[in-house]
Design brief:
Immunoglobulin-like, transcription, four-stranded antiparallel beta sheet, RNA-binding, three-stranded antiparallel beta sheet, single chain, mainly beta, about 70 residues, Trp_RNA-bd_attenuator_dom, Transcription attenuation protein MtrB
């Protein structure tokens, strides 16, 4: 599903957003750090198969809304 977008809104300072590659071996290929209130729009591409989020963030996808980092 190339082209799908996700919206990530940081709910605290220092939220890490990490892009992971697709293919035979999964590797980190991009990293961003967001501060509280910052928003990032990320896209799945031929190179990005997964996005890892560390920290408290709101994530919006076509499948719905998810709270990352909440217990």
């Amino acid at each position: 599903m190339y082209g799908d977008f996700v919206v990530i809104k940081a709910k605290e300072n220092g939220v890490n957003v990490i892009g992971l590659t697709r293919g035979k071996d999964t590797r980190f290929h991009h990293s961003e750090k967001l501060d509280k209130g910052e928003v990032m729009i990320a896209q799945f591409t031929e190179h990005t198969s997964a996005i890892k989020i560390r920290g408290k963030a709101e994530v919006l996808t076509r499948h719905g809304r998810i709270e990352a980092g909440e217990s």
